[in-house]
Amino acid sequence: MAEPKILTESQDGITLLRLHDPDSLNPMSYEMSREFREAIEALSRDPSARGLVITGSGRAFSAGGNIKALKERARTPAFRLFEQGRQYSLNFLSLRMLRIPVIAAVNGHALGAGACLAMACDIRIASENAQFGFPFVRIGMHPGLGATYFLPRIVGLAKAYELLTTCELIDAPEALRIGMVSRVVSPEELIPAAMGLARKIAAMPLLTVRMVKDSLYAHLETDLETAIGREAANQAITFTTEDIREGIAALLERRTPQFKDLP
């Protein structure tokens, strides 16, 4: 039986998911994409899930697509490539269905599809030895896996165009400077830092955290008036919860709130 390409472990509602093919720097194969989607769908059905951290096994996050597979795709008719590429992307980007925080813990090289997967996460924390790159154009290939969607929203259109067309490698300090990651830590601190951040968010009221995520992504595609309306509606809902009453009481009494995620 083949070794799984996705490994997961969970504790206290926080799941650590590893891309797992370390001998080859975790290439994102079609097989891995199917296992990844299965893991995400299982997590989406888990009522105890409060956060997800994604990392890579070994010394890389992911070196991207398998070069041998790409060579084979170059011999495949375009109409078949379209559906294959679409399904491959949808499998990995299924993480966007999750309403819990998704944090990329980038432990080494994140190249091509690997970099795109990191960009699709809500938050990125990088090890000091992490590097990011989008080398699609270098081999004559148009970027995929949401690269042209996520990257301009994270670093701006001009910088995204530069990165996608020059295929320049970005180290961790530069990634922090341009807003690609929110924190850089030592290699040994990476997983504890990512898991700690997930737990910190998980300690907040679940309904409110879900609504904040929903609003942030919805507002990327809408106008200010619609955004204000959505915020007002969601605020009204949170004011009906036990958690907001507990939060206000705890603030006034100068104690730590005990949220119960109850309506």
Number of alpha- plus pi-helical segments: 11
| DSSP, total strands | 10
CATH topology-level name of the largest domain: 2-enoyl-CoA Hydratase, Chain A, domain 1
The shape is: globular
Give the uncertain stretches in residue-range form: none
Total tally of structural domains: 2
Report the helical percentage: 40-55%
Within CATH, the superfamily of the largest domain carries the name 2-enoyl-CoA Hydratase, Chain A, domain 1
Strand content: 15-25%
Secondary-structure element string? EEHEEHHEEHEEHHEHEHHHH
- How far apart, in Å, are the first and last alpha carbons? 46 Å
User: At the first level of CATH, what is the class of the largest domain?
Assistant: Alpha Beta
CATH architecture descriptor of the largest domain: Alpha-Beta Complex
Alpha-carbon Rg, integer: 20 Å
Explain the overall architecture.
- This protein is of the alpha/beta class and 263 residues long.
- The chain folds into 2 domains: 6-202, 2-enoyl-CoA Hydratase, Chain A, domain 1, CATH 3.90.226.10; 206-253, Lyase 2-enoyl-coa Hydratase, Chain  A, domain 2 (Orthogonal Bundle), CATH 1.10.12.
- Helices cover 47% and strands 16% of the residues.
- The chain is built from 11 helices and 10 strands.
- It has helices spanning 30-44, 67-73, 78-92, 113-120, 147-155, 157-166, 172-177, 190-202, 206-219, 224-238, 242-253, and strands at 6-11, 14-19, 51-56, 60-62, 102-106, 109-111, 123-127, 131-133, 170-171, 183-185.
- The strands form 2 sheets. A 6-stranded mixed sheet has the order 1-2-3-5-7-10, sandwiched between helices.
- Strand 2, helix 1 (30-44) and strand 3 form a beta-alpha-beta unit.
- Helix 5 (147-155) packs across helix 6 (157-166).
- The N and C termini lie far apart (46 Å).
